Amino acid sequence: MNKNELIAAVAAKADLSKAAAANAVDAVLATIEKELKAGNNVQLIGFGTFVVKEIPAHEGLNPAKGVKIQIPAKKTCKFKAGSKLATL
Hints:
Layout (H helix, E strand, L loop, with lengths): L2 H12 L3 H20 L4 E3 L3 E8 L2 E5 L4 E5 L2 E8 L1 H4 L2
Helix pairs in contact: 1-2
């Protein structure tokens, strides 16, 4: 399912216009993104939790040249499935 299909499904399920459903989906996604960028986790009970994970700086290997390189620290997003989603 892509974003347009999700919007159409939300519009049908919630009896909304596609424009209103698109605004709702965009608002939810923007809010989740904003909270994750602020370093906060987003927990949707039963569905799952979006978690910010910090990956420390570490040494890697350039596969083309076999040279060791330093990989900088970064933050990434992980998703942990909730109870309703984990038992599909």
